[in-house]
Amino acid sequence: VQLQASGGGLVQPGWSLRLSCAASGTIFSINYMGWYRQAPGKQRELVATITRAGSTNYADSVKGRFTIIRDVAKNTVYLQMSSLKPEDTAVYYCAAGRGSDYSTPNYWGQGTLVTVSS
Fold this sequence. Notes:
Elements: E1 2-6, E2 9-11, E3 17-24, E4 32-38, E5 45-51, E6 56-58, E7 66-71, E8 76-81, E9 90-97, E10 107-116
Parallel strand pairs: 2-10
Antiparallel strand pairs: 1-3, 3-8, 4-5, 4-9, 5-6, 7-8, 9-10
């Protein structure tokens, strides 16, 4: 499975941004896709996941602001981020897993940098 992430950039606090992650390869083996992020000096953390069945899961810090959406026909998952805060600044990674443990995805895409600053 290959994951191609895109959509990062520099935005001001309060703005919105959408990240995209296109999956290719042995898609049938994937049970979930998700977004993770790593801020400078911090550990990587889960942001949001969506399962093959459509169930979603969010970190408490982004609930109500971020939405994970999937386009099955395009094998693409999006992370719609709104009301962005400076603390959302991080490298965002797309990932996918075959199992149900969101803490250990099997596949990782390259990161895309999101900077929230005035």
